[in-house]
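Query structure, 265 tokens:
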């Protein structure tokens, strides 16, 4: 399979089946053409779990932000983030008398919806963790610092065959974690990461790298590497750099079948 965006430049004019077929035949002969590996039904089902969980998490965040904003209009202030949800609910119960009856009912409905979302997220996460424990590949990936059951199972589901990538750098580039080059007039400079490819996997790896950086001073080779880089670069830059390194380690483990070793990393 080829991504349509890579075939489109070979369409001469118009939109017909014949023109599309001609463009596909031309594109498939290009030596630099990139192909999309075909996922199995089991992998597609696993990815559906991740996408559903991600959707519910985003919905929960929206509901929490809305609840905080509405409470602030009535003078009830709580901490930011999902972590402040319990505080908001406690304050809501404590200040019920100062709220009008219509507002109180609506707040109760929002809280009930949030609780239902949390329960659904928890159920899906349990399913993902159960499948992670049943997969030897996923368990091996979880041995890498910054990768937990969610990230490991997402990688297994999204990457049917890691050998299609010639190197760890190509795998990291597929995830959009490599610098993007801009060349003009004989001068070349890097303008940040490309952010191409699977944004969900990229986000999971960056979040995991951020967690590793918080423990950068402990005895671990990847953390020592991050600690040294933190002396020169901003934490966000180091998080992306560590996510890039983690992606290369993931590729090595997927292609060789070995387990993670801190010394080899």
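Result returned for the query:
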């Amino acid at each position: 399979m080829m991504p349509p965006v890579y075939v489109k430049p070979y369409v001469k004019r118009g939109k017909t089946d014949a023109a599309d077929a001609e463009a596909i035949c031309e594109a498939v002969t290009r030596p630099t053409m990139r192909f999309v590996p075909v996922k199995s039904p089991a992998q597609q089902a696993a990815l559906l779990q991740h996408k559903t969980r991600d959707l519910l998490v985003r919905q929960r965040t929206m509901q929490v932000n809305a609840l905080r904003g509405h409470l602030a209009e009535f003078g009830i202030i709580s901490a930011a983030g999902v972590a402040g949800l319990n505080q908001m609910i406690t304050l809501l119960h404590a200040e019920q008398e100062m709220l009008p009856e219509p507002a109180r009912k609506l707040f109760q409905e929002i809280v009930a919806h949030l609780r239902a979302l949390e329960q659904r997220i928890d159920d899906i996460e349990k399913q993902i963790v159960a499948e992670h424990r049943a997969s030897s590949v996923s368990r091996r990936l979880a041995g890498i610092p910054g990768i937990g059951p969610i990230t490991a199972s997402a990688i297994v589901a999204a990457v049917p065959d890691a050998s299609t990538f010639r190197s760890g750098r190509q795998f990291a580039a597929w995830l959009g974690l490599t610098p993007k080059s801009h060349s003009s007039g004989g001068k070349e400079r890097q303008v940040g990461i490309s952010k191409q490819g699977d944004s969900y996997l990229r986000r999971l790896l960056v979040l995991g790298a951020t967690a590793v950086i918080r423990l950068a001073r402990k005895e671990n080779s990847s953390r020592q590497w991050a600690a040294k880089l933190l002396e020169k670069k901003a934490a966000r830059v180091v998080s992306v750099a560590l996510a890039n390194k983690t992606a290369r380690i993931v590729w090595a483990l997927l292609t060789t079948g070995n387990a993670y070793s801190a010394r080899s990393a």
